[in-house]
Every structure is written in C-alpha cells, then in structure tokens.
Amino acid sequence: MIFQNTSQFADLLDEQDPLKNFRSKFLVPQHKGKDTLYFCGNSLGLQPVTAQHNINGILQTWQNLAIEGFFAGEDPWLGYHKKLTHTLSSIVGAKSEEVTIMNSLTVNLHLLMVSFYKPTGKRYKIIMEGSAFPSDQYALASQVKFHGYDPKDSIIEIFPRDGEFTLRTEDILEVIDQHASDLALVLFGGINYYTGQCFDMLSITAAAHKAGAYAGFDLAHAAGNVVLKLHDWDVDFACWCAYKYMNSGPGGISGIFVNEKHFANPYLSRFEGWWGFKQDERFLMPHDFKPEVGAAGWQLSTSPVVLLALHKAALDIFEEAGGIEPLRIKSELLTAYLEFLINDINTNNNDELFRIITPKNKVERGCQLSLVCKKNARQTFNFLMENGVMGDWREPNVIRLSPVPLYNSFMQVFELGQILAAAVV
Ligand SMILES: *Cc1c(COP(=O)(O)O)cnc(C)c1O
Questions:
Q1: What is the pLDDT of residue 264?
Q2: In sequence order, what DSSP letters do the residues of 340-383 get, joined into one string?
Q3: Residue 91 and which of 15, 256, 348, 376 are 20 to 30 A apart at CA?
Q4: Is RNA-binding among this UniProt entry's keywords (predicted)?
C-alpha cells in the first residue's frame, strides 16, 4: 500500500478497518479531557470495559455462595480456567490440553525449567538471546547455579554483530549447531522486548532438537501480538504474561504451554501441588499424586479467580475479534503506517533523527517499533508525554511505541507522527 502523511488518508484507513469499533471495549487514560494516545501496550495493555463487571461477579458469588462458589453459580470457580483455555490456546497455536493458566511469568519460567532443564555432566549449557529481559537473565542464572554450574560457563548469550541491533537467524542457528555436544536447552524470547525483533521460532526449535536439546520460549512480547504456532513448530514449552498484549491487568495471571508429546514423557519431572491433581478426584484427597492430563498437571495452587475473571474479560474480546489472525492483519498495516510516518520525518529533515532498530521485515517484528533518537532523546520523550502520548522510554536513548490493533486507530498513529515531527523542529 502507498501511504500518505495526511489526516484524510488516516481517516480512510480507519473507515476501512473492520476492527475499528473494538476501541470502545477499552478504557483509556485521559489527558486534558481527551483520550491519551496510548502506545504502551507492550508494557501494560488497556483495561477492558467489562473487567469491573467480571470482578464484581466474582465478589457477588463470594458474598452469596461463599465456599459453594467453587461448585455452584453461573461460572463455578472450579474449572473456571478451562473456559479460557480454548481462546488462549488458539492465540498461541496450541491444542487446548497443551495450555494452562497459572501463576505469573517468572514463576512459570522457573517451574518449566524444573521440567525441561535437566543438566547432566556433559549436556548442561543454555543458549539465550543476549540482553534478554532482566528477569529471564536472573531466572536462568539462578537455575544454573541451583544445579551447581557456573552461569559464566553454562549460559551462552548471542549478541548482534558489530554495528547491528538485531540477531541474524543464521548466527543463532550456527551457535546452536556448535554446541550440539554440550547443549541442554535453548531458551529464547519470542520477541525481544528492547528491539521488537521477532525470532524464527520454527528454525530455532528445529536446530535445538537437531543438537539434542529442548527448545522453550518466553512469549511475553509475542502472545496476543503475533500469530504463533507452538504445536506445529514442535516447541517443547513456553510461557507468557497476559498483562502486555493480552490486556489482563497489572501482574495478571500467566499461562504455560507444554507440547503434548511430553505429557507421558517419563524423563520429565515437575513440582506438584493439589491443583494439578485430576480435578474429578482432587477432593478425595488421596495420598499419592495423580496428575490432570496435559499442561494442567503443572498447576500447583488454587486458581486466583479474580485474576481469571480479568483474563476472561480480555480474552472474550479476542474471541469476538475472530482471534489473532484478523488482529495481526490490521497490526501489520498499523505498524507499517507508523514506520512510514517516522521515515517521512527523517526525509523531511534530511537526517535519520529517528533510527528504527526494529526489523523492517514484517515477519521479523510484531507491532512495536523501537526508535533510537539521534538528538535530544529524553527531551523528545518528554515532549511526547506533554502532548498526551504514552510511550515507553529505555535508557539511554530508545523510545518504544506499540500501536495495538485492538485499541489504536490509524488516526492516532497519524497524530503520533505529527507530535514526533513537532518534537524535533
Ligand atoms: C514483561 C516480561 C517479564 C516480566 O515477568 P513477570 O514475572 O511477569 O514480572 C519477564 N520476561 C520478559 C521477556 C518480559 O517481557
């Protein structure tokens, strides 16, 4: 599509957008009596209008039925999470039994590593992306130390080549290949939080398997953002948080994927708790653990139903939108429009004032664009905030902007472009 830097053109794109009414399903922070231009869905998605209603429903059931709320009422709390796994599994490209909803992201990363990181004398190394999100770095280093190994020797981080910002798939695959004799696990992000680069999960998984290792992904920035095919890609395990692109509330509940081929894998061990016990026999409370089939067997504790109610409010909107595919079609266009407007600013200034470090190729990115500001980076970001833009700042000079197809319009992207242009005059 040939884009134009005019409000009429943005208007036209909005008119043609089949998802344009979904904006009204979210609550937007106000700035000087107007909706902010919210481009921070990569950090915290907006609140669904129905969130309060859903929480009130839980409070009401608690009030009216108390303990009986687990078994009675419209949506009994026992098994409430199962109502969500259908929508969620389609978002991540999994079978229903391969997905369960529990805990938060870093906790789940640890629990999955208990199962999938089993270092032995020779095979103990982990390959990960360099400069991964800090929590992942801490989690992996502590797992390695827990098993008595030294992170310096055991964790191999892959960094971009000199002068480049993102990783080349060929380099990732080569490092995996080089470690075929000592590799236990490849653990990558689906999308890097800083650059917005989406990794080739299919190739990385295949290379890991060829090297005799497991492949797992942290999908914090990928779930609800890009189309995922975890089952078809033969990924071993994955986890994510639901408060970024899945709009399920700050610190909201997370989810995990375990490939069905591992359901009966005797090599895997896991930490167990009563919520992972077969649901229909759980309350007989027998001595020995009998797991629920599938990913649900990884659950430990009573589900936090209030958080599930928030998650449901958000996932219902995905369901109504027809799942991730139609959202992704809009998302590609929306992000391409922002990219066009930013490049237009550079052209008009005869200078690369904003260098987009996110890959140009749409299969290598989600909705986020990360800009390195050549001049007055912090002032530029402040100017955005003063003008009602909520974006996201990363030291020393990077602004991350994420147009989200569920609640951002082409007109908002156009207005963002105008404010960015005004920031650098
Ligand atoms: C957001 C994010 C986290 C945050 O983890 P929590 O346990 O939810 O606080 C972890 N890893 C990555 C890659 C993230 O993007």
A1: 85
A2: HHHHHHHHHTTS-SEEE-S-SSGGGB-S-EEEEESS-HHHHHHH
A3: 15
A4: no
Q: Which amino acid is at 30?
A: Q
Query: What does pTM read for this prediction?
Result: 0.97
Beta carbon of 220 within 6 Å of any ligand 1 atom: yes
Query: 344 a known binding residue?
Result: no
Q: What is the pLDDT of residues 214-238, one digit of tens each?
A: 999 999 999 999 999 999 999 999 9
Domains and CATH numbers, the chain: 7-48+323-423 (3.90.1150.10), 55-320 (3.40.640.10)
Query: Which residues are 38's β-sheet partners?
Result: 390
Q: Coil, strand or helix: which one is 38?
A: strand
The 10s digit of each residue's pLDDT in 330-359 is 999 999 999 999 999 999 999 999 999 999
- Tell me if 341 sits within 8 A of 413, measured CB to CB: yes
Q: Is 135 in the pocket of ligand 1 (CB under 6 A)?
A: yes
With b for 16 or more beta-carbon neighbours within 10 A and e for fewer, the 221-256 pattern comes to bbbbbbbbebbebbbbbbbbbbbbbbbbbeebbbbb
Tokens 């629990």 found at: 111
Ligand 1 centre distance from Cα of residue 269 (Å): 24
Structure tokens at 33: 């009596």
